[in-house]
């Protein structure tokens, strides 16, 4: 009788162990299937955001007679880069951690003519119901020590799926043409030196960033002057620009 009872306990234990293993395997399978879906979901999120910005660009072009957006680039971070970023942050590799802590899997760069256009777009994004602003890092108001300037904005856009509405994160980097040129050259130089950049090169890069900023302000001033001569600007508009 005692042996039969022990056998039942062993059987129950084995069954429980099997169920736990099965649960783990199902969970891993679900995570694997979700992981495979992620690139598609982020690609759709970028397409959704591109369509919104295309409409904004067309509307502003009709309204102002010029487009504040020069061009747009998009990219999706490679799986290896995602894993490396989790490791750098000391975060365990799980699907939940990826969705929670990695905000730049989908990336968009918007290059504008003038700094004023960047903040105008940001203000417009904040007023829309179909774009949620999650985080803002303003490297234009406060450039990085090396001179880097750009406005980084983490947004979420809705995807209407069979399972329901799912908000996907996208990192937007907004720059002027001058800022974008500087950032591209800085990347090339750092790649050439394998990030071991001589001190004098770092100093000259910062000077170049300051020159790019000066060029942005100079071009904006020239535009103000031309528009003012054409009677298309009012004094209060000019004051607003200087204050920004």
Characterize this entry briefly.
This protein is 61% helix and 19% strand.
Task: Tag the structure with descriptive keywords.
single chain; 244 residues; alpha+beta; 5 strands; flat; disordered C terminus
Overview of this structure, please?
It is a single chain. The chain is α+β, with helices and mostly antiparallel strands. Helices cover 61% and strands 19% of the residues. It has seven helices and five strands. It has helices at residues 2-64, 79-89, 95-101, 115-127, 177-192, 199-229, 235-243; strands spanning 69-76, 106-112, 132-138, 151-161, 164-176. The protein has a five-stranded mixed sheet. A hairpin with a 2-residue loop joins strand 4 and strand 5 (164-176). Helix 5 (177-192) packs antiparallel against helix 6. The longest helix has 63 residues, at 2-64. The radius of gyration is 26 Å and the shape is flat. Residues 9-14, 22-26 and 233-244 have low confidence and may be disordered.
Alpha-beta classification: alpha+beta
Bin the helical content.
Answer: 55-70%
Shape: flat
Q: Largest beta sheet: what is the strand line-up?
A: 1-2-5-4-3
Q: What is the rounded distance between the termini?
A: 87 Å
- Extended strand count: 5
Please summarize the sheet with the most strands.
Answer: 5 strands, mixed
Q: Number of helix segments?
A: 7
Q: Which stretches of 5+ consecutive residues score pLDDT under 50?
A: 9-14, 22-26, 233-244
List the helices and strands and how they pair.
Blueprint: H1 2-64, E1 69-76, H2 79-89, H3 95-101, E2 106-112, H4 115-127, E3 132-138, E4 151-161, E5 164-176, H5 177-192, H6 199-229, H7 235-243
Parallel strand pairs: 2-5
Antiparallel strand pairs: 1-2, 3-4, 4-5
Helix pairs in contact: 5-6
